Amino acid sequence: MAKPVALQFAAPKRGLPPKHFADLTQEERIAALAELGLPKFRVDQIARHYYARYEADPLTMTDLPAAQREKVKDALFPTLMTPVRSIETDNGETRKTLWKLHDGTLLESVLMRYPDRATLCISSQAGCGMACPFCATGQGGLDRNLSTGEIVDQVRAAAATMHAEGRRLSNVVFMGMGEPLANYKRVVSAVRQITQPAPRGFGLSQRNVTVSTVGLAPAIRRLADEDLSVTLAVSLHTPDDELRDTLVPVNNRWSVSEVLEAAHYYAERSGRRVSVEYALIRDINDHPWRADLLGRKLHRALGPLAHVNLIPLNPTPGSKWDASPKERQDEFVRRVAAQGVTCTVRDTRGQEIAAACGQLAAEDRAAS
């Protein structure tokens, strides 16, 4: 029996981020503008600047009364994130950005351009409390939850970058720092803003948004009842409880069978295929019998609505965890597929720029 690991579901208390336009409901926005002496119709006007033109500075919103722009900026558009550094790879197609928040907290996002799409990997927490030992973020612990505005503004910044290039941001994945379902309300609010059409949101298809989780079973069921059609990604990493108790300590609370039952409920409610994330780690979880067991369990729990996304591990410098050899990876894929479950290998981007979540922040903390 693995020794229980202390998990952090509640973020440590730190200074709250300043209130931002993206944090407010429509009614709250109307009330906030009324306090500034602005009529109701200005709300949608400002929202179109933010969600359709990706502008976050009211001083550039020339259709607002000049005398009011500074007031709107001070009240509703504080600077949430300041870029610390960005690094690129894949001939400039992959860019990782380290951001500093108002309280000095660090977070990361990764923009990946492909011929047919542009995908942004965003963070939902600063740090992570799930304590997975092979993950740089998990080993750093949880700093705090991100506000809705801090989540949404990562998307706006990337959408602005793509717009300047004459392209469109098409996909968003909650696979950066943090456990999205441990910051549930803010993540769901952000998802709605990402997917609603302007002036309520950026207008991405819900089917192009992926929300990942290490397996918070009750929250998976709750998400299923939101009537969203986003993709659920479950970071399983092994099909057996004995090893998963160590690799994904939250398994001590919700077992593999409970997680798969919740995933089945999500698939049933949404009609969407569930992506099962599996970081393949040399001599730890890459055994042939585990591939067979994984395929059998997924076939039984999810049938054709299961898809295994095999991830070659991006090792943290100095870590004992390493990626599996390619021949073992290929055998793993073959065995899972032989059980009737689709299995593909993720296209790894940005390994040389520490693109796995938490690595760049960890490097920056170590250097400071």
From TrEMBL:
UniProt KW Methyltransferase keyword: yes
Entry superkingdom: Bacteria
Binding, S-adenosyl-L-methionine: 178-179, 212, 235-237, 314
One record GO biological process: tRNA methylation
SUPFAM superfamilies in the cross-refs: Radical SAM enzymes
Binding site for [4Fe-4S] cluster: 128, 132, 135
Subcellular location: Cytoplasm
GO cellular component, one term: cytoplasm
Something else known: Reaction proceeds by a ping-pong mechanism involving intermediate methylation of a conserved cysteine residue.
Protein name: Probable dual-specificity RNA methyltransferase RlmN
